[in-house]
Amino acid sequence: MKAGPLLLAAAGLGLAAGAWVLMAVKLLSSPSRQDRAKETGKKSRTRKPPDPRSTRETAAVLAGMAGMLLLGWGGSPWVLALLATLGGAVGLGLTRMMARLKEGSDRAAGIRELTVLFEAVELYMRAGYALPQAMRAAALLTPRLRKAVGECLACWPAGPRRALEVLRQNLNIPEAEILVSLLGQVDRVGLKNLEGVMQREAYNLERLRQLAMEVNIARRPLYFTLYRALPLAAAVGLIVGPLLYRVAGVLKDAIFFF
User: Fold this and answer.
1) Structure confidence at residue 99 (pLDDT)
2) Is 76 a member of any domain?
3) Key word Transmembrane helix present in the record (predicted)?
């Protein structure tokens, strides 16, 4: 009898025995029903929503593994395991790369609209608008920030400080903290005492956005090079793959011969 089926049977029995042992330990060490109810109530109150990023990464890993298993269907078990591992790694890498690109583009767009928002607020306040009215009018120019500004204005009756804190939390952009604090100072002392400060900070914010865009542009040739190298890698795989499979078969026959 060959050693392959014996190893598979032993691995299956080991996994089954381990599962039974873990289930028995879990049942013996499980808390009472009341304790479980209390813990469930606490977890339900403090449970966070699932992260969509982890869900996408899991789906990409499973899709990559399934695709590579279909490509290598009919091969030996170690080849299938290698292909599944490679497919999962490729799926995870592509998902993270796409998520990073999307995050960078969203951040650049958010900074651009943040600059427009604060420049428009300063312009409307010079025209005689109060700060809430200027923010409401400026929000029409920034679709991405309109919801955050609306929630801020909804909290304005509770106090400007509380409303601006809600705005800072909803924007979730590190560069917005300085400008939000400037809005608080404008609300307290007026725009005349801070003339030019908001415009200068908005200019600095726009400069940061341009630097971020330049960094993203500098990264694009690397992505294009990798993308164009994929057909070459596929062609090399079609040639080298059968050769490696043949070499593995020859080595296996030589080992069994000796």
Assistant:
1) 78
2) no
3) yes
